[in-house]
Write a structure and sequence with these properties.
eight-stranded parallel barrel; 8 strands; binds 4-methyl-5-hydroxyethylthiazole phosphate; binds 2-trifluoromethyl-5-methylene-5H-pyrimidin-4-ylideneamine; binds magnesium ion
Amino acid sequence: MNKELLKLYLVMGSSNCGSGEPLPVLESALKGGITLFQFREKGNGARSGQGKIKLAHEMMSRCRSYGVPFIVNDDVELALTLEADGVHIGQDDGSIIETRKRFAGKVLGVSVHNVQEAHDAMKFGADYLGVGPMYFTNTKSDLHEVKGPDVIKDIRAAGITLPIVGIGGIDKERAGIVVESGADGVAVISAISQAQCPTAAARELLYEVEKILHIT
Ligand SMILES: Cc1ncsc1CCOP(=O)(O)O
Ligand SMILES: C=C1C=NC(C(F)(F)F)=NC1=N
Ligand SMILES: [Mg+2]
């Protein structure tokens, strides 16, 4: 997978938007230059069944019109039904090997929290690693121990060259540090979905990331 896609990765669902309406927020973030999108429909207010499929389809077509790949979190069935560009799974979302087989030729992202999990994910065919949480955040209820960007340094020191995106509590003040630690970009939820202007928030985050990528 082209690691440049990971520069600015918006992860979002209905529960992350104050209005509960993610479509306008996605549209605004796409205008601001996000490079990848993940549909993560979880928590209170999350749609289910046909409503979830309809929303996912609407969001996927917005991404397609901007040439931004559309990734589905957790729900491999939905990803296959939609013919999404990829799927992102956690350590508890079933076997990486199984999902790899079912999603051959598409993007497979895996959440990892340490060098061991990163090594296994690479071995089982992950295309990119979501490493976190980088900083404390209230957005995810069952948050793993906060490790900070140093865990990315450890993964790189172990010789793992897979594309990496850092996630967890990242805003424009912290984005540069995460990329300096060896990530190819940052994944955010609230820094964009809770922003007064998602377009401006995306632009500023992308600027911070590219500032570092262009000199490293
Ligand atoms: C999905 C996920 N995985 C680790 S932290 C997190 C939530 C990130 O949300 P925010 O960018 O608002 O801190
Ligand atoms: C739990 C997660 C961890 N990382 C990522 C991403 F950053 F997108 F790779 N997405 C998730 N849903
Ligand atoms: Mg999961």
